[in-house]
Amino acid sequence: MxxxxxxPPANGAGALGAxxxxxxxxxxxxxxxxxxxxxxxxxxxxxxxxxxxxELALMYLSSPALPIGAFHWSRGLExxxxxxxxxxxxxxxxxxxxxxxxxxxxxxLPLLALAFKAACFRDYGTLSQLNxxxxxxxxxxxxxxxxxxxxxxxxxxxxxxGLWPEKxxxxxTPGLLVGQALLAVFLxxxxxxxxxxxxxxxxxxxxNQISAAARTLKxxxxxxxxxxxxxxxxxPGVSQRAMTLPVEDLGPGLTGLAMFSAHHESQTGxxxxx
Length: 274
Description:
About 55% of the residues lie in helices and about 0% in strands. It has about 270 residues and is mainly alpha-helical.
């Protein structure tokens, strides 16, 4: 089954289809162009009582040890394996390449880029709008739950570290994408670090997908590590395109992936929550 097959699922939350185009003016983003790239600032960053250099902040954001529960979610990969659509290393490589380019690269990373720019300039109104979009565009209840639960975990982490700013409404709970954008800013990263923030998010996604694959497919660790290295070569280009994607073009476009997620909701004996 192809991830981008055109026939929408007949049941449940996977039948939402493609989101309607969004006018930049409606999102309050008309004046927000791509952020100019520059070198990563090398000064120390305050994180509660800890001082963290920016490059270490990026490692922190992409670490599997970040306590946001990412290991609970396979993002449809478990169902793809159970259905036989992903059987071996070659299938997995094709699956992840398509998911990176057409899924993460067409929605998650572009929205994260917009959210990070808004967070850098303390534009909390735009952040709220982007947060609504990040939740509304999820094609299944599992994908929506992952966005909600991930955001809650990021907020708990920021609170526990003393990073949540006083000017940000304590009642606001971000989804995962907006939460990651806020956390990056709380750690002291700024507009010139945009590409690095996107790369870190994509790398964390890739690590989690490989971890899920290791638990659902009979593949050797050497093969999986080689696949990580191969796909890492694609991440900077995907991030670069995501930085300039117009807001009206945002939207996940992998109907097959949505179908996997929708079917997974009724799957018994599963390892993951998505």
